[in-house]
Amino acid sequence: MAAPSGFTATQIRLHWIVFILIVAQYVLHEGISQAWDAVERGQPAGFNPIVASHVLFGILVLALTLWRLTIRTRRGAPPPPEDEPAVLKLAASATHFALYALLILMPLSGLAAWFGGAEMAAEAHETMRIVLLALVALHVGGALYHHFILKTDVLTRMRRPG
Ligand code: HEM
Ligand code: HEM
Asked: Is the CB of residue 54 below 6 angstroms from any atom belonging to ligand 1?
């Protein structure tokens, strides 16, 4: 099967929806952090819409990521620009792999902490949030470097289906 020349409209929509959900997870984390502190002190968490949205958005990220991976496995991914240095190609695919891994592990660890009371999962969730942030910074830096310095079409292909 030949590699596709770009991403489908669905893949592009999913990328940006997940981006918005992740931003919301970071901006609105305070509610679940406080609820978790209460649980750890042996107090009831109670119902709080901000907490419920953290759980819901997290599950949505997991479901949409599995959907993305299914499309990617069936269709393949567009190759990196030919003249991109080998080290950058490697860095990009390693970053994408790690991002996909964290988009799965963040919700799973959150679920294990919240519904399973697993203290270690909560610690992993807390550590991974920093790793995810660092990877996203690297990823955005890479995308902007491609667009403004290398002047490739990489950023455009995550905006227009091809
Ligand atoms: C991609 C999905 C997710 C992201 C990016 C995310 C992000 C975050 C962030 C930034 C915090 C704050 C950590 C802190 O205050 O130190 C947090 C805390 C928490 N999240 Fe999530 N979360 C996700 C999914 C979930 C899901 C699905 C659940 C549960 C069903 C969950 C449960 C928790 C819990 C229990 C805490 C408090 C404990 C802790 O700080 O580790 N999260 N999350
Ligand atoms: C939460 C934030 C983000 C996450 C988790 C994320 C995740 C990903 C993943 C996993 C891929 C690989 C797609 C694939 O090959 O199947 C990808 C591709 C891409 N992302 Fe993001 N992304 C985020 C934010 C952004 C932002 C803010 C930008 C733009 C500044 C961006 C630009 C791109 C571009 C241009 C591609 C295509 C790369 C290529 O064609 O090789 N991403 N993203």
From this structure: yes
- Which pair of tokens denotes residue 112? 């294990």
Tens of pLDDT, residue by residue over 11-50, are 999 999 999 999 999 999 999 999 999 999 999 887 899 9
Question: Any idea which ligand is nearest the CA of 25?
Answer: 1
Residues 6+ apart with CB under 8 A from 88: 80, 142
Choosing from 158, 159, 160 the residue with most ligand 2 atoms within 8 A of its CB, the one to mutate for a pocket test is: 158
What is the assigned CATH class of domain 9-158? mainly alpha
Secondary-structure percent of the chain, ordered helix, strand, coil, rounded to 5: 75, 0, 25
Identify the nearest ligand to the CA of 29 by its number: 1
**Domain boundaries in the chain?**
9-158
pTM: 0.96
Q: Which atom number of ligand 1 is nearest to the Cα of residue 102?
A: 1
The residues, any chain, with a CB within 8 Å of residue 21's CB and separated by 6 or more, are 57, 60, 61, 64
